[in-house]
């Protein structure tokens, strides 16, 4: 293996950062003043030293009480308050001194600290003020007071938590007591140092920007959280005052920080908020923190209103309100646009812009649901009905699974070929059955539509039956939270909710006589069932990811490392730990991280399902500024409509976290679902580079092989778990096809070159005739070489001129004479330029040819542009004619030129006109380009194509992205040929590295689309729900006779 795991000079940076993550210190070679080091040691140990005051307080108490039993100090004791206040004041004075030093120093002394220079040495001599600012960076006045106060409070409670009396009560062994006392105060000193100086770069880094400086408080937060949980659990008698759990956790905190198991504060906030919304409120993971907080607020309001009306008026009314609000939240009555993923100010306006029948339909649904539940509330009291619903649920689940599976190319976990699929053109399996296109999609939509209602009825029967004895009593906050969650999630995830209900009723039959089952809230059991299913799904995906990674490492010689045998031996020994890593990471919904790309997995810190802090995206596509990004933009807009229909038919999952890969020609598009509801889901689309590296091309070929094997393999049995992607039903979608070919042997052929100038003369006449009323008069005054003018006048194609002028109804002699004069003039300015392949490319690229008579056009840029445009059209015409040879009269040539004008952009790629025409969705593009000394033509054609579509194992990109964040943000690995980006066609590593968010990845196009998932039975509902404007095609054949130029 030639690619290094990490650069040799980066290893020292890694070790330096690991030391900083463990001890809290950041080393710098810039700091050389010995006095500053004494100051660092003094401030680091001062909090521990101040705590000695509490020891004197203890001795005095013992003497006054005649050595009676010691008492544990409290936070309100005077010595504790004094210690915290002294430290806060000392820190405040020091911060103010540092503030003066940082603000009063000469601005010319500001230094940009380079981490490599600070580690490897730098001969630059800097002042004492600069050295001070490196260790103690600038802090604002507000931040100074906040950090001083927090640090004082932390020290005060640490004196209580780590007091000798407290430890003596918990540990009988004096050696263990003193060890925990010393290690505990070292941890507190490390934590305090992040407030006194600056926090080190954390192993769990998730984002680099921190405008509010919240991540600086991460270590302080975890220590404070530890203190709070210890106090709360002991106060509520969950734990005794002799437990040792939290003292041990405090001591091992530096180890957890080094291994990156504890996320930074903002990451923890995003993850906790998401878990609360999903598991407690029954909502969906969101595309941003703002939207996640919005869903949390809506869920909290629903619980509050239901509890108020249910407790103070009538339980039945509160339950009806919970149904109504759960329906509104789950069905997304007020669709939120995704501009920066924030709330729209026009939600109500957007709502009333929907077709009126949709609004009426949804209102009727709500009334029906509430009516049915109220009837059930009144009459249901017979548990004998439940087994019937269990049977019905089981049958319904089986039918849904069959209907979804039978619409795929392969059935039963994609192992067996679907007999209802038949090969069509190119031996690709397509839907050729009335049942596949009409009956099964209709049946799935109907079942999906009734599933929430059936789930609601099943749940209400059980809830009402279990609550009959307390029907007129208050349910309590916990009951209302669980009830509102159930009534929300059945719309959020209707089919999984039905399956969880089915499992619950099976468990009810088994454990109905058990006391613990009767005493446990059934809705709480439902949460546990949902959580277990989530863990099982993630364990399966993570295990497959680990198997793919280990298999490729052992079998692919390109994946070998220097000590391959030793590495394999270690991986075998590591297997039991790997299984534990998979289980724990699945419990916390966190990725498993392959360290430096090797198949050695560790637990990643918890993070949101979207895997990234945020997406810098606008939906007006202003970021699409290149040819590739505009091609992907058009592809995405069209693909959105097709995916919409596929999801509505049950062919593709809409679960948050699912990822799909779209492949056509050289295009690779990654689609990631980041938010979902009953009717809508938000998908992030990422388009990858078309001209990739060798690693990219290796994995792209592997993708094509997987699709080829699925579509064309004669084998009826396959096992898709061998690959990172699982092919799904292909899609028909409009997109650009990129056709590239060498022009060697065509445009460098002397016979072809001889046709260019005559064709150019005809094209020039046609172009001037089409703009005859707009020919600038000043062109007639150009001082041209008269001798050349008279020479080329004799070559004027008069018959072609007569045909063109008659076609454009030009009959005035003056206008004809002007066209002839300008055409001959322009032709005479360039005709004596010798044409070769190189000179043809120069003119095509926009460089005007220099001839003996071209200087007369130096002040006429518009004329030069027209000549170059006509020359490009001539090149295209001659190029096509030399290949197809299908034009034999003026009518055919005229129609071809009109087609070029209407349906083609013939220009240099990435030029402003090229990009403008891409935005207009011109169907055809043509250009020439040079690569490695050879000349090529590039043609883009926009038409309906068959797009290969596959589902990605989501744990693979999650793990690769997690390692990428660690490797580039923390280890600063910058080697473009490092091991972790080498081609691995088992897990498509290089492809997923490209699809990471910038600046770590480099997708050429990123955008978000809101896809409406239609689940109604109406046959015309697709048009109603599709909010995108119907694409009009102005490029048709009505302007010219397209049948004339094909012989």
UniProtKB/TrEMBL annotation:
Segments for region (Disordered): 1027-1047
Membrane topology label: Multi-pass membrane protein
Ranges of residues in domain Pecanex C-terminal: 838-1008
Places the protein is found: Membrane
Coiled-coil boundaries: none
InterPro entries for the chain: Pecanex, Pecanex_C
Transmembrane parts of this sequence: 34-57, 78-101, 141-164, 176-196, 216-233, 245-262, 293-313, 319-343, 355-377, 383-403, 446-464, 560-582
This protein's UniProt keywords: Membrane, Transmembrane, Transmembrane helix
CC per GO annotation: membrane
Membership in a protein family: Belongs to the pecanex family.
Protein name from the UniProt record: Pecanex C-terminal domain-containing protein
Organism: Anaeromyces robustus
UniProt lineage: Eukaryota, Fungi, Fungi incertae sedis, Chytridiomycota, Chytridiomycota incertae sedis
């Amino acid at each position: 293996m030639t690619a290094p795991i990490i650069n040799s000079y980066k290893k020292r940076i890694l070790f330096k950062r690991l030391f900083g993550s463990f001890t809290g210190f950041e080393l710098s070679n810039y700091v050389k003043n010995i006095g500053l080091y004494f100051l660092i040691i003094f401030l680091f140990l001062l909090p521990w030293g101040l705590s000695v005051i509490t020891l004197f307080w203890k001795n005095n108490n013992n003497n006054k009480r005649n050595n009676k039993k010691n008492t544990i100090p409290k936070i309100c004791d005077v010595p504790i308050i004094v210690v915290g206040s002294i430290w806060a004041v000392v820190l405040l004075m020091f911060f103010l001194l540092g503030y003066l030093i940082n603000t009063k120093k000469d601005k010319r002394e500001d230094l940009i600290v380079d981490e490599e220079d600070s580690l490897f040495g730098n001969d630059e001599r800097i002042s004492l003020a600069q050295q001070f600012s490196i260790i103690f960076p600038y802090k604002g006045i507000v931040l100074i007071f906040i950090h001083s106060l927090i640090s004082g409070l932390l020290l005060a409670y640490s004196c209580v938590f780590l007091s000798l009396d407290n430890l003596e009560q918990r540990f009988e062994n004096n050696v263990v007591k003193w060890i925990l006392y010393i290690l505990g105060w070292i941890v507190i000193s490390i934590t305090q140092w992040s407030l006194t100086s600056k926090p080190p770069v954390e192993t769990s880094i998730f984002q680099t920007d921190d405008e509010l400086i919240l991540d600086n408080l991460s270590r302080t937060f975890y220590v404070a959280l530890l203190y709070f949980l210890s106090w709360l659990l002991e106060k509520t008698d969950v734990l005794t005052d002799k437990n040792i759990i939290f003292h041990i956790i405090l001591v091992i905190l530096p180890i957890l920080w080094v291994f990156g198991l504890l996320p930074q504060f903002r990451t923890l906030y995003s993850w906790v908020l998401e878990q609360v919304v999903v598991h407690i409120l029954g909502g969906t993971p969101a595309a941003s923190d703002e939207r996640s907080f919005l869903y949390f607020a809506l869920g909290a309001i629903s619980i509050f209103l239901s509890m108020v009306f249910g407790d103070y008026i009538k339980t039945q009314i509160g339950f009806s309100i919970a149904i109504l609000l759960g329906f509104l939240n789950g069905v997304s009555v007020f669709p939120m646009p995704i501009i920066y993923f924030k709330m729209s100010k026009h939600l109500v306006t957007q709502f009333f812009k929907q077709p009126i029948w949709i609004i009426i339909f949804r209102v009727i649904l709500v009334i029906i649901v509430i009516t049915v539940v109220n009837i059930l509330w009144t009459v249901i009291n017979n548990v004998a009905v439940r087994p019937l619903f269990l049977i019905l649920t089981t049958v319904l689940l089986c039918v849904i699974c069959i209907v979804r599976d039978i619409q795929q190319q392969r059935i039963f976990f994609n192992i067996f070929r679907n007999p209802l699929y038949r090969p069509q053109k190119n031996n690709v399996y397509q839907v050729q059955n009335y049942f596949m296109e009409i009956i099964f999609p209709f049946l799935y939509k109907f079942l999906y539509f009734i599933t929430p209602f059936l789930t609601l009825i099943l749940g209400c029967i059980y809830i009402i039956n279990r609550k009959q004895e307390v029907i007129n009593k208050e349910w309590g906050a916990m009951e209302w939270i669980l009830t509102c969650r159930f009534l929300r999630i059945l719309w959020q995830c209707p089919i999984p909710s039905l399956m969880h209900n089915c499992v619950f009723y099976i468990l009810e039959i088994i454990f109905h006589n058990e006391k613990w089952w009767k005493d446990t809230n059934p809705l709480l059991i439902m949460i546990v069932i949902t959580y277990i299913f989530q863990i099982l799904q993630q364990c399966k995906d993570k295990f497959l990811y680990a198997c793919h990674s280990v298999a490729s490492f052992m079998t692919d010689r390109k994946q070998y490392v220097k000590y391959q045998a030793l590495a394999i031996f270690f991986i075998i020994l590591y297997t039991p730990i790997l299984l534990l890593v998979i289980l724990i990471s699945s419990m916390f919904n966190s990725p498993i991280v392959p360290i430096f790309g090797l198949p050695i997995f560790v637990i990643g810190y918890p993070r949101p399902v979207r895997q990234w802090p945020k997406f810098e995206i606008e939906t007006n596509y202003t970021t699409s500024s290149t040819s590739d990004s505009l091609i992907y933009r058009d592809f995405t807009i069209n693909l959105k409509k097709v995916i919409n229909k596929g999801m509505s038919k049950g062919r593709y999952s809409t679960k948050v976290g699912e990822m799909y890969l779209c492949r056509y020609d050289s295009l690779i598009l990654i689609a990631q679902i980041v938010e979902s509801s009953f009717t809508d889901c938000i998908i992030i689309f990422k388009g990858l580079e078309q001209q990739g590296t060798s690693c990219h091309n290796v994995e792209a070929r592997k993708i094509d092989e997987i699709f080829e094997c699925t579509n064309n393999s004669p084998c009826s049995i396959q096992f898709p778990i061998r690959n990172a992607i699982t092919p799904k039903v292909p899609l028909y979608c409009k997109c650009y096809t990129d056709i590239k070919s060498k022009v060697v042997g065509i445009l460098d052929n002397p016979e072809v070159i001889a046709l260019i100038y005559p064709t150019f003369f005809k094209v020039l006449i046609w172009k001037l005739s089409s703009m005859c009323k707009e020919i600038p008069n000043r062109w007639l005054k150009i001082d041209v070489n008269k001798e050349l003018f008279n020479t080329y006048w004799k070559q004027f194609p008069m018959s072609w001129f007569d045909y063109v002028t008659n076609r454009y109804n030009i009959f005035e002699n003056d206008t004809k004479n002007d066209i002839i004069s300008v055409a001959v003039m322009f032709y005479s300015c360039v005709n004596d330029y010798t044409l070769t392949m190189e000179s043809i490319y120069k003119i095509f690229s926009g460089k005007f040819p220099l001839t003996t008579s071209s200087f007369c056009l130096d002040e006429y840029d518009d004329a030069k542009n027209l000549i170059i445009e006509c020359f490009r059209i001539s090149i295209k015409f001659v190029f096509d004619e030399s290949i197809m040879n299908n034009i034999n009269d003026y009518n055919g040539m005229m129609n071809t030129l009109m087609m070029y004008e209407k349906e083609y952009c013939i220009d240099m790629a990435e030029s402003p006109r090229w990009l403008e025409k891409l935005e207009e969705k011109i169907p055809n593009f043509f250009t020439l380009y040079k690569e490695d000394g050879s000349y090529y033509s590039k043609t883009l054609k926009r038409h309906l194509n068959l797009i290969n579509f596959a589902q990605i194992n989501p744990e693979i990109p999650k793990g690769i992205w997690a390692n990428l964040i660690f490797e580039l943000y923390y280890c600063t690995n910058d080697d473009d040929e490092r091991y972790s980006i080498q081609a691995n066609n088992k897990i498509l590593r290089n492809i997923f590295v490209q699809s990471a968010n910038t600046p770590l990845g480099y997708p050429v196009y990123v955008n978000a689309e809101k896809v409406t998932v239609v689940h109604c039975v109406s046959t015309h509902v697709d048009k109603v729900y599709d909010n995108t404007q119907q694409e009009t095609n102005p490029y048709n054949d009505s302007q010219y006779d397209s049948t004339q130029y094909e012989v």
